[in-house]
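Lab notebook: predicted structure, single chain.

Context: the supervisor wants predicted structures on file for every construct in the current expression panel, including those that have not yet been purified. This is the next one on the list. No modifications to the sequence; it matches the entry in the shared construct table.
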Amino acid sequence: MAAGRTEGRHDQARGLDERQPLDALKVLADGQKAAAAVVDGALADIAAAARLAADALLSGGRLVYVGAGSSGLMAMADALELPGTYGIPRDRIVILLAGGAASLEDLAGGYEDDRALAVGDAETADIDAKDCVIAVSASGSTPYALAIAAYAKGKGAKVVAMANNPGAALFDGADVSILLQTPPEVISGSTRMGAGTAQKIAFNMFSTLVGILLGHVHDGHMVNLKADNIKLKGRACRIVSDISGVGLDEAERLLTRSEGSVKEAVLLAAGVPDVSAAKAALTRSGQSLRRALKALG
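Prediction complete. Output recorded below exactly as produced.
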């Protein structure tokens, strides 16, 4: 088997086990910084991927995150945050992690080689042409990710491929390819380190831009958050207060009227007569709070 860049030897790795702990950590820290730096070269592709994902959601489709091992965990972490942070309904987010729940207790490697398992997972998820599939693999050759990407493409779904090796097989046929060309790992092949760091940053940027494109961000505020605990209810109050200029007590009262909807509470503060009118204003604006506020004059 040909070894990709992710299996290469790091030039500072020789004698690592003989170094003093702080010296070893310095090498590891430098490796993480170098990995993070490569994301800048992928910004245009991350933007294109976010546009595909947002369009899929706007058209009634779903985001399907696909991965195995450490890369799958990066994908899953991003997917799980979307409902709470941006209010995207849970049934519009699908997570296909090789091995499923079993992998959350034992991240066994065999699942990632099982193409039949991958196809079965894709069939169970009922991937179709409205969906956008985001498949990630550090090597870009993981059979599980490749099989689901091919299945999705065959169903007419949009496919975003993220990998850390140039020329990765996962890029073949993808609508958008995100290459995160990280250096060889300090611990050779341990892609939970540099490759995983770059993937996490790219996923953070991807999903945040999706939220922005959907109209769920206003001046850096997550205005479509799901406030389902004390901390987030307090945050929702502060967001309404900051955007509208009302006090926190009034913000809380408006959020009660709007059943927790930050966007609707802000519109109520701006003079919209009732929740129904606020909902209608948001529908007309495509769920953009900014456009809805501008329309009020």
